[in-house]
Every structure is written in structure tokens, then in C-alpha cells.
Amino acid sequence: MTKRSFFRSLILAVLVLCLSCAAAFAEPVRVAIVQPMSHTSLDQIRETIVAALEASDIEFEIVTRNAERDTAALPTILENVKMEGVDIVVPIATNTAQSAKVVFEDGQIPVVFAAVSDPVAAGLTGEDSFFITGVSNNIPAGEIVRLIADFQPDYKKIGFLYTSSETNSVSTINAAKAYCDANGIAYEEVSIANLSELQTAVETLISRGIDALYTGNDNSIASAMSTYIDVAYSYGVPVYCGADSMVADGGFATIGVDYVQLGNQVAQIVIRLAKGEMPENIPYETLTDYARFVNLQAAGTLGMEISDGILSSYKVLVEADGVSHFGE
To answer: In what order do the strands lie in the sheet with 111-114?
Structure first.
């Protein structure tokens, strides 16, 4: 073979490889959605992704898996999904996405994460993550701290509560603490290792003289909102949250994540991949908008009066009589 023929063959091979990489998946495109547990936020993300994919012009075959709080089982669940054969995997939440990176490290199957607060801190960016993209649910910590003043203009101290093993939750609280430090706002913090510590943690913070509680997008605590608010509200302390779903489940107010929007953004990335785009060419996204939500039933329980001027800038998720508008 002449040198010219060799280079011609090499160029042709590269072109064929590139074309094959850019080719769309054969239909139906098999997508696996994996979540660590069930609670309102995570379920809403999954349901929104499924609905958006089913409404697209591509035929998808969707399988869903749930670790049911057993996060140690996530690698096995993902390994099983891989052996079953999928085209795209969608891990919901930080710990699921981190497990997916390990299981799918050969880069043959694209990973589209959903609801990862800090993809950089979670190790989901960089050269070894070329096959990973997704949508972050990072929330504006400073805005949430400022939100408290809307309802409690004379508050003195905030109590931060989070799960120590959740990277997403730790990252959110660290951002909120940094904002407080920069603005001279007093706070206390308590972390929990598991939900059996939740009641004691809330009572510990309240004993330290806090006026308001804040928990970000913490999956463990979000799955136990009834316990959280029962304790907090019995002491007359409002619970501010990192997501609309947490407010719908009893929290008082938030400026934060609309998980329908997040789910739709994730679905659009999946569709782009199904049509042949490569994950390394799709930078991870953050939410394009945030919204303010309030729970008037919680306000009534707490004996808090909200002026019409403040209320006009919030979406009411739960009316004073308990009627919910969540998901509308």
C-alpha cells in the first residue's frame, strides 16, 4: 500500500467512525431512569421525564428503578441495568449519578444526571466525565436567606439542618453559610447521619434560639417532611426549603427548584442524545428560572400573617384550607 493510499484509508476510517458516533440510536431508544428513593421531588422528576419522552417524536422504551432508600444497592441496580442493555441512563440525585459514573466508566453509554446540586464537587465534570451531562438543581442560597426577611423581618438567627452524607445538601448549606458570614447573619447548624436523628436535630437547633429553619435540596429530609414540620411547628418555627415539592409536603416557603422544569430540561437532553448528539458536546445545564412558593396552611399553623404585598410575589402551593395546587 502506498503512503497516499494509507492516509486515504485512515481518513476514510476516521470519517466512518465519526459518522457512526453521530448516528442516532435505533428505535425504540431504551432509557433507564434510576432514583435512590421515593419522595415528592424525585418522583416528580421521574414522572416529568417519562411524560416528556413519551410525548416526543422518538419511540422510547423506558425502564425505571428505585433503590428504596438503600443507597448501597445503587451500584448493583445500575450494573443490572447495564447488563439488561440500555442506550441512555438517567440517574436522579447526586449519589445515583456518582454511582453511574463508576458503573458506566467505559463511556459507551451516555449518562444524563438529574438534580445534582454541585456537579463539579460531585466529580461529574472534567475529562473523565466526557460521557456525562445533565441538569443541576443548584439553588440561589443567598436568595433563600433573604426570603426569610419577607416573612420574619426581625429574625435574628437561622438554623441549618442537612444530611451529612449528601454532597448536594452539604454544598447548598455551605453556600448559605458563606452568604450569612459575608452579611453578618447569625446561624447554627446540625447535620444528621440518618433520619432517626431528625427529631433530636430539630429540637437541638430550636434550643439554640433559632428563629427559622432552612434545609436545601436534601433527599433524605425531603422524604420525612411530616416529621420535620411536626417538630418545628410545635415550637412555632417556620421551615424554609430548597424545592417547591418540599413546600407542598408541609414546608413554609422557598425560592427554588421547580422540578417539572428540571425534568423537562433533562428529557430534552435525552432527546438530543437519541437523535445523535454526543454528551461531551452538551454542557450540563442549570435551571433557567426560579420561582417563589408558599404554603398558607403552614402559615396558619404557625399563626403567621402575610401581607397582600408579599403574597402577590408568591405562588400558593397549599391553601389555608389544605387544598394543594402542586403540579398545576
So the answer is: 60-66, 29-35, 88-91, 111-114, 132-136, 285-286
Largest CA distance in the chain: 87
Residue 315: all three cell numbers together:
405562588
Q: 25-137+259-286, which class in CATH?
A: alpha beta
Q: Which residues pair with 60 in a beta bridge?
A: 29
Nearest to 262 by CA among 45, 95, 88, 53: 45
Cell (9 digits) for 258: 421547580
Q: In what order do the strands lie in the sheet with 212-215?
A: 186-192, 157-163, 212-215, 239-241, 253-256, 291-295, 315-318
CATH assignment of 141-256+290-318, among 3.40.50.300, 3.40.50.2300, 3.30.2290.10, 3.30.420.10: 3.40.50.2300
Whole-model pTM: value is 0.71
pLDDT digits (tens, 9 = 90+) for 190-239: 999 999 999 999 999 999 999 999 998 898 999 999 999 999 999 999 99
CATH 3.40.50.2300, the chain: domain bounds = 25-137+259-286, 141-256+290-318
**Using one digit for the tens of pLDDT, what is the confidence trace for 16-35?**
344 344 457 889 999 999 99
